[in-house]
Amino acid sequence: MSKKQASSKLRKFRFIDIFVVVFFISTAIAGLYLFQQDLMQTFETRDVEPAGIITIRNNIIQRRHEDRVLWERIFVSSPVYPGDLIRAADVSSATIDIADNEIFLSENTLIRIQSAMGGMGTFQVELREGNISVASGAESSGIILNLFGSYVQALSGSVLNATADEEGISIQVNEGTAEFIQEGQAREITEGSIIAFDTEGVEKALPAAIITRPIPNARYLKNSSDRLIVNFEWTRTNLEPEEMLRLEIAGDINFRRVLQTVNTAENSAQIGFNAGQWYWRLMYEDNLIRRGWITVVDASGPALSSPATGTVFRYSDTLPQIRFQWAERQEVSRYLIEISSTQDFAAPVIVRQLTATSLMISDLGQGTWYWRVRPVFPPTYIGESSYSTDASFVIERTTDASAPAIVIPASSIERVRAINEQMARNTAAAAQSLIKPEPIVVVGAAVEYTIRPGDTLGRIARHFYGDPMQWPRITEANNIQNPDLIYPGQVFLIP
Hints:
This protein is α+β, with helices and mostly antiparallel strands. 16% of the residues lie in helices and 43% in strands. The protein folds into five domains: 1-47; 52-204, Sandwich (Jelly Rolls), CATH 2.60.120.1440; 219-298, Sandwich (Immunoglobulin-like), CATH 2.60.40; 304-407, Immunoglobulins (Immunoglobulin-like); 410-494, Roll (Membrane-bound Lytic Murein Transglycosylase D, Chain A), CATH 3.10.350.10. The chain has a 16-stranded mixed beta sheet that branches. The protein has a seven-stranded mixed beta sheet with strand order 29-28-31-33-26-34-35, with no helix packed on it. A six-stranded mixed beta sheet has the order 21-20-23-24-18-32, with no helix packed on it. It is globular and about 90 Å long.
């Protein structure tokens, strides 16, 4: 190769290198600019009055403002604003409270929130794809659904379901009434009715059964050990009265494992459910008419950790500080704790509502005290929660300087030991029981703590004492032989 050819090739390589460097630098600058714009838009949005708030979220829910580039995850209590795009991913769902209207997004659903036309003060929800349900509050002014240019006015107290997919749109009214507006013409849709249009906007008749009970994607509270009975009711559209329908219940969204099947020519069925998320579908022959799911939540009272029944608190001059603690419950919005001097709780001395699972009290006097806790769920749930079994403890004054401040009953220690022994049997690497089987006396306030993934004794000590170096207090109180060998599920007494 001649020097001239080599020089020409070298210049060519240098040009390509320079081009690649410039290209990547330009791309990075453009990305930073877009990120800055999106960040500034986020800051500006905080000054805008939100349209609503996320009240329930399952799995992945994302939001993007119409003028932004990036999608962001949103969580329970996150606000949503006019102009926001909200999407629910696969096997995900969310409930949004907008002006006293509950908007439920099923999986693979995309909506856009807008202020209503004409400044009427009612918000508009544009369904771009997927399935949503709307429950309009009795005192609300309703909400407007935009379905590819057709509009549905959900009136006060109505419940409806809307679907938009590659086959067109459909609207069914489960409860109350709604108005369907197309090309300036309005017509009323009454309870138990359905209308459907293909992608060309031509109305079509579908064999259908309108589910009037349960409401779409209902959430129930179960407060006893018995199965919760749920009534399924529907009205028939374009079906003969004698034609059989099939209601199927499954534990998975794909119905790979159907747990119960009801074949009926009636317009109702009763199904018993345990706690969990359950999927249902109504079939006509091999055609899917409607499907959805219900969530059944254990709403019985939480387990009370401390003070355990039989615990004695002693003091000489200053009333003892008592830490009340109980087990956490999923999807609870707050807890109601009652403390009473009588077991019937006719006139509780203390009634508090709080979001935490513990409470410090330092103004209870001598005597026997009873306490209980009730979980409180969001108003979207159907049913009532129940109180926990009450626990009792004693506060007594003493002049004996050698008397222990707290005596924890043997039954409480036994229960902690049994939990740990069970965990040890289920874990090959578990140590022997970490709690002494005999009664112990702990000076100072004591609580039970269940180990969570990622916990260390140092972290637990920092949480309770504000100092991670106080971890030996925990090992001594619980006879822990190896401080590095703790695992989720163990229960420790924290002195």
